[in-house]
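Incident review: delayed structure delivery

Summary: a single-chain prediction request sat in the queue longer than the usual turnaround. Root cause was a stuck worker, restarted by the on-call engineer. No data loss occurred. The affected request and its eventual output are reproduced below so the record is complete for anyone auditing the incident later.

Affected input:
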Amino acid sequence: MLRYLLCVRAACRRQMLRVACFPGGVRQAFLRNAAQTPAVFASIRIKQELLEVAKITNADMIELSQEHLQTIRTHAESTYPDECCGIILGYLANEGKTVVEVMPTENAWNTEAAAEFPGERTTESKRRQYTIAPEVMLKTQREARDRSLNIIGIFHSHPDHPAIPSECDRLYAWQGYSYIIVSVQNGKAGELKSWSLDDTHQFQAEEIENIK
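Output delivered after worker restart:
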């Protein structure tokens, strides 16, 4: 069952810019009468940055501190039974990724976001879906650049389900980014895993290395 979906959607009523994003990058952009809007150029910059991440990072390893892990777990527990979500900032290198900051965000999933997706997805609530608002993604991307950082991934929770990516997670993912999932069982954060896409667009587990 298609349970988990990250979709970042920017809707301008006049320009009709719609963007589906995953971990800091534009998954696809449908533009109609919007070629000159600032949001379009910002979205293009995010996509370019995403492609650079895929080029730089080869190793399946992510370094983060116990404080970062606790931030993810605390956010996941605070939003239970809804899914939580957030953005991961850090550095990129051939040997892997190093997390500098974990930024919890609001789960902006609502009926308007659901309307972008057909079938059973339209009936799902925040307990099975999450959305990061496009303006949050764009603002974070600009601030990260100012700090010489990159958006290197996204985290979210699976309430009362394992920390394993769903088919929707896979379909909307981008190679080069880390996808941290934390399982929350009965309100308590438990198993936490990181995943990244291989060359065949299949998720592979990433090694998580704790740093002090």
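Verification: The radius of gyration is 16 Å.
Action items: add queue-age alerting; document worker restart procedure.
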